[in-house]
Design brief:
single chain; alpha+beta; 2,3-Dihydroxybiphenyl 1,2-Dioxygenase, domain 1; four-stranded mixed beta sheet; 3 helices
């Protein structure tokens, strides 16, 4: 699943019984509704933002009234901290990896490659889907995922 090690299960684990012991009786824990933004440092924020817009279709946060923000489709989102020593992200100096869901992996890979962007050959995992990797111009790892 998105940003998970493909060896991990795609199904969310059932809530731990120990966690339930810490919740007050008779109340439901308030939970976040989703990811509201992704903010990260860049050497050239304007150029990097334009790259994401041009190649992945992600609208940037509007800077004037009337602009619209990127609207992502509802769907599964993995949230998975990895060990500090993981090699899964590639460059050990990169602290995060973004995973984007796609509808058509073959078409997306062809589109990126035709723009001169290096993309690894996709790999498929039963019951999970297909994954591939690329990097933005500043070397940040990106994983693309077409769910099964």
């Amino acid at each position: 699943m998105a940003a998970q090690n493909p060896a991990q299960s795609a199904s969310p684990a059932p809530p731990a019984k120990a966690a339930a012991q810490h919740e007050p009786k008779g109340t439901d824990m308030e939970k976040v509704a989703g990811i509201g933004g992704l903010f990260f440092r860049a050497r050239d924020p304007k150029a990097l933002g334009q790259w994401y817009q041009q190649h992945l279709g992600i609208s940037l946060t509007p800077t004037s009234e009337g602009g619209t923000v990127w609207q992502q489709e509802a769907g599964p989102t993995a949230f998975s901290p990895f060990p500090e020593t993981t090699k899964y992200f590639g460059d050990p100096n990169k602290a995060f990896m973004v995973n984007f869901r796609v509808h058509n992996m073959e078409k997306m890979v062809a589109q990126l490659r035709s723009a001169g962007i290096e993309v690894k050959d996709p790999e498929s995992y039963p019951n999970l889907g297909s994954y591939t990797r690329l990097h933005d111009p500043e070397g940040n790892p990106i994983e693309l995922w077409q769910p099964a």
